[in-house]
Amino acid sequence: MTAVRRIAVFVLAVAAGAFTGACSDVPTDPMQAPAVRGQPDRAVTPTSRTLLQEGIVHYTYDLELGPGPYDVVELHRMVRERRPNRPARTVDGVFLLPGAPNSWTQIFVEPLVSDVPPWDQSVAIYLARNGIDVWGIDYAWARVPLETEDFGFFQGWGIGKDIEFAHEAVAAARSIRTSTGQGNGRLHLLGFSYGGPVAYGVAARETQLPPGRRMVKGLVAVDTEVKFEEPERRAVACENADDFEEQIAEGTYVNSSATGLLGLAGLAVSAPDDPSPAAPQGLELTNREFILFATASGVPHFVGGTFDESGVPTGLRFTDPDLWLDVILATRPYWPLGATADVARSRCESGRDVAFDDNLGEITVPILYVGAAGGTGLAGAYTASLTSTRDYDELLVQLLSDSERRYDFGHADLFTAGSAATHVWEPIREWIVAHRENRTHPGRPGDEMR
User: Fold this and answer.
1) If you ran DSSP here, which 8-state letter would residue 449 be given?
2) What's the pLDDT at 39?
3) Is CATH 3.40.50.1820 what the domain over 20-240+349-434 is classified as, yes or no?
4) Single pTM value for the model
5) Are 252 and 341 in contact, with CB atoms under 8 Å apart?
6) What residue spans define the domains of the chain?
7) Nearest to 299 by CA among 371, 196, 386
8) Is 427 helix (H, G, I), strand (E, B) or coil?
9) Per-residue pLDDT reduced to its tens digit, 281-323
10) Contact 258, 102 (CB under 8 A)
């Protein structure tokens, strides 16, 4: 079994793909799509404007960053408007980076991929309703369709390309903010899961720029790790990195592990009560039960679950199961194996050099780390300790006892749980508001959140 398949359940469910329907009223106001400041060749094309409720509007843009069909990222904006195409004054701005193979709407705007939650059960909408100008991207690989057979374009595509494109997208967001009256201030970056290494990579890259050209004012790292502290975990990362790099050397450039989960999730919807073909030996599970079992079992897990005495899942503790199925079914099918290998090699700390983490220790912007007790927990704080920030806070979302961690708030619960607004999104909003002027204090990783 290859390492890609070994990590399939962990990598997959978090990601879920984009929903591009229900888009209407494409803006014609030229102020909505200026050229990227200092990058006139970077074309920004408005593609949709969707009015939700209470004046909250979701914009999308295509940002062309190269000549190829997959050199385009989709830029998102969620903001309150005072009138059409005129955003209301905001307190601050944040740029959200999803995991892999996630899409932006799947993780940050679930009501656009599911009819289950209320219209405002979304971190992006929550922040926008509370005065934050919310931005983000779908990575360029999210555009690759399921029917693709030739993945030669993924050759040489590592996390560095995603970091470069994310940095360009932040520049585009600042240009649009300026043209729509929000000013040219720096933005906070929030990186979830794979988005964490991307966010740290953008911030590390900026340490090599003059202060006047930097665009990031703070980092919110959500249930994510760039580096592993424990030697035994580094050893596993080295094995994975070796396996990924061997596959790349043999001509495999795509991580397609998500396609297996998509098929099983499809069965959970089309034939929920039929026996699952993937159930572990000795455990009889239906198709629906298997999906809950695969994503709610062990630590880390995606969603906290409930189980009977024989280990069969009976439901989810924090996230609506039907919403969770919709999120899984929105998973993007492919992402570059080179990016997977880069993250594993960085955590290994030996072998092939990966450049994206070279300047991690020079990062000085404020950092908030948010962990799920049933997910990464506080292990992600180690990465922050390797930076030079003097303004550090952390939040552990733990709703059960230490002995019940295997059932506690999971990796995806941070954005899909019905109570996430209280336990996760409001503390993040408070931190953003408290850091709108980039005030610093002498805290270091390990201090409790203040």
Assistant:
1) P
2) 52
3) yes
4) 0.90
5) no
6) 20-240+349-434
7) 371
8) helix
9) 989 999 999 999 999 999 999 999 999 999 999 999 999 999 9
10) no
AA letter at 78:
M
Quick one: which of 162, 187, 190 has its CA closest to 177? 187
Cβ contacts of residue 362 below 8 Å, gap of 6+?
204, 207, 387, 388
Judged by DSSP in three states, 128 sits in: helix
In terms of DSSP H, where are the helices of 180-230?
195-206
Task: Show the tokens assigned to 263.
Answer: 């098929």
SS3 state at 167? helix
Residue with tokens 């906290």: 304
Residue 84 has phi, psi (to 5 degrees) of -50, 130
Average per-residue pLDDT for the chain: 89
> Counting beta carbons within 10 angstroms of the beta carbon of residue 289, is it exposed (0 to 12), middle (13 to 18) or buried (19 or more)?
buried
- Please determine, for residue 70, whether its predicted confidence score (pLDDT) is greater than 80: yes
Place of tokens 């795509």: 254
pLDDT band at 41 (very low <50, low <70, confident <90, very high): low
Token couple for 304: 């906290």
Phi, psi (5° rounding) for residue 96?
-100, 130
Q: How many CB atoms sit inside 10 A of residue 83's CB?
A: 8
| Residues 380-403, mean pLDDT to the nearest whole number | 98
Provide DSSP, 404-428.
GGGGS--TTHHHHSTTHIIIIIHHH
pLDDT given for residue 180 in this prediction: 92
Dist CA 161 CA 6 (whole Å) = 25
Distance, in Å, from the CA atom of 425 to the CA atom of 167, rounded to the nearest integer, reads 24
Tokens read off for 378: 């506080």
Backbone φ and ψ for 370, nearest 5 degrees, come out as -120, 120
Nearest to 190 by CA among 8, 424, 377: 424
CA distance 105 to 89: 24
Amino acid letter, 149: E
Please state which of the ranges 168-172, 251-255, 436-440 shows the lowest mean pLDDT: 436-440
Q: Using omega within 30 degrees of 0 as the cis cutoff, is the peptide bond preceding 300 cis?
A: yes
Contact by Cβ (8 Å): 395, 384: no
Query: In 3D, which of 18, 6, 123, 8 has the Cα closest to residue 73?
Result: 18
| Distance of alpha carbon 102 from alpha carbon 94, whole angstroms | 18
For residues 156-175, average pLDDT: 98
Q: Which residue has tokens 């439901």? A: 315
